[in-house]
């Protein structure tokens, strides 16, 4: 029997308004930055109008991207709460494209904005095998000290041993697919944002936190299944890890003059999970130029495509599915995203130059045999 598994950062699927932009320009939408706003009350009214006008197109495209995965189970990042998830599934997926995901799970993590990891799944696979929820375990409470993961590099960032490891959560969900056990670990690691520190860019400066998160995920799995037996069990780690092992660097001045070059990274937090064959990044079964799930740009001097979104399979599950090559759904990308030659897609209706869009991230989906 087969299962279609996907992951997708849906970006700020919220059922509340974020007014923090009034005091923090970094959180302010660029539309409101055009206007002189004289009071917080005025800002709140304008922000509500802007968010409502923007959200409908965005969520239609998000729903189309999810529908295109054909997933039986989809792991999601940046979901506000279960009410937002239910409203989105009913109002967009079910009503708009007929994709009914009856089972939905999330819990509060550590994110300061309240955006959490979540899971939606059907009652059965496309082949009629029942999908059964067994239990859900949050690991949001774990601290660096508890797992012995505090390092001098973390101390230099102001991280204390008593502080929580995960910026959101590592949500462990046990399922049965046609009676066969499968465990999913839903993650969303620390972002690469933030000001440079000590001559390092944002990615390098925040790397110790992501390494701790990756080591903690591995620790949780090894504690659950046993260090010597973990790779033989059926599990997958799904989510946005905010890091990459390769980039496709973009140079040139326009669509007819773009040049794309693959560059390997010396260090990545993924190393903590992938070394010694603990698990496999199945997206690496695709050609190097065709593994990207996000376009990053800070202007012409800093542009690249990279993989931030992952489905990591345990060694056993990867070996059982040696021929499985994942799909990356890029139709919801805005037109500004440069595509290497041969990767062009038909964009979803109403996608804009920069927005609306399904997300800056692309869903990743893979079909697995559960034997």
Provide a brief overview of the structure.
The protein is α+β, with helices and mostly antiparallel strands and 371 residues long.
Structural summary, described in words:
The protein has 371 residues and is α+β, with helices and mostly antiparallel strands. The strands form three sheets. A six-stranded mixed sheet has the order 3-4-2-1-16-15, covered by helices on one side. A six-stranded mixed sheet has the order 5-6-7-8-14-11. It is globular and about 60 Å long. The model has no long low-confidence stretch (mean pLDDT 95). Helices cover 24% and strands 26% of the residues. It has a single domain (2-369), classed as 4-Layer Sandwich (Deoxyribonuclease I, Chain A). The chain has helices at 40-69, 82-97, 144-147, 152-156, 202-225, 271-274, 315-320; strands spanning 2-13, 73-79, 103-106, 116-121, 131-138, 170-177, 180-188, 235-240, 246-251, 259-264, 279-281, 294-297, 303-306, 309-314, 327-328, 364-369. It has seven helices and 16 strands.
Question: Which features characterize this protein?
Answer:
single chain, alpha+beta, Deoxyribonuclease I, Chain A, six-stranded mixed sheet, globular, catalytic activity, Endo/exonu/phosph_ase_sf, Endo/exonuclease/phosphatase, Putative extracellular nuclease
């Amino acid at each position: 029997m087969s299962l279609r598994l996907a992951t997708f950062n849906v970006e700020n699927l919220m059922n509340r308004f974020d007014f923090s932009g009034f005091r923090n320009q970094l959180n302010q939408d660029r539309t409101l930055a055009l206007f002189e706003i004289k009071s917080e009350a005025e800002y709140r009214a304008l922000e509500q109008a802007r968010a409502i006008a923007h959200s409908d197109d965005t969520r239609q495209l998000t729903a189309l991207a999810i529908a295109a995965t054909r997933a039986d189970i989809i792991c999601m990042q940046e979901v506000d709460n279960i009410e937002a998830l239910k409203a989105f599934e009913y109002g967009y997926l079910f009503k708009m494209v007929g994709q009914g995901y009856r089972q939905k799970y999330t819990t509060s993590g550590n994110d300061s904005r309240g955006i959490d990891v979540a899971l939606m799944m059907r009652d059965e696979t496309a082949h009629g095998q029942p999908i059964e929820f067994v239990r859900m375990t949050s690991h949001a409470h774990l601290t660096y000290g508890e797992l012995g993961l505090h390092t001098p590099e973390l101390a230099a960032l102001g991280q204390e041993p008593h502080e929580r490891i995960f910026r959101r959560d590592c949500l462990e969900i046990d399922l049965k697919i046609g009676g066969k056990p499968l465990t999913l670990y839903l993650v969303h690691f620390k972002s690469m944002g933030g000001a440079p520190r000590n001559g390092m860019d944002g990615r390098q400066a925040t790397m110790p936190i992501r390494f701790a998160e990756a080591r903690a995920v591995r620790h949780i799995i090894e504690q659950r299944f046993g260090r010597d037996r973990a790779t033989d069990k059926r599990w997958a780690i799904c989510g946005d890890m905010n890091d990459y092992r390769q980039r496709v660097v973009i140079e040139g001045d326009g669509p007819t003059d773009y040049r794309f070059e693959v560059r390997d990274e010396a260090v990545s937090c993924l190393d903590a999970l992938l070394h010694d064959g603990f698990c496999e990044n199945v997206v690496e079964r695709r050609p190097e130029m065709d593994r990207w799930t996000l376009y990053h740009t800070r202007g012409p001097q800093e542009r690249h495509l990279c993989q931030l979104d992952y489905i990591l399979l345990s060694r056993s599950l990867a070996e059982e599915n040696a021929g499985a090559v994942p799909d990356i759904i890029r139709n919801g990308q805005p037109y500004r995203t440069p595509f290497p030659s041969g990767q062009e897609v038909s964009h979803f209706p109403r996608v804009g130059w920069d927005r609306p869009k399904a997300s800056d991230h692309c869903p990743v989906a893979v079909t697995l045999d559960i034997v």
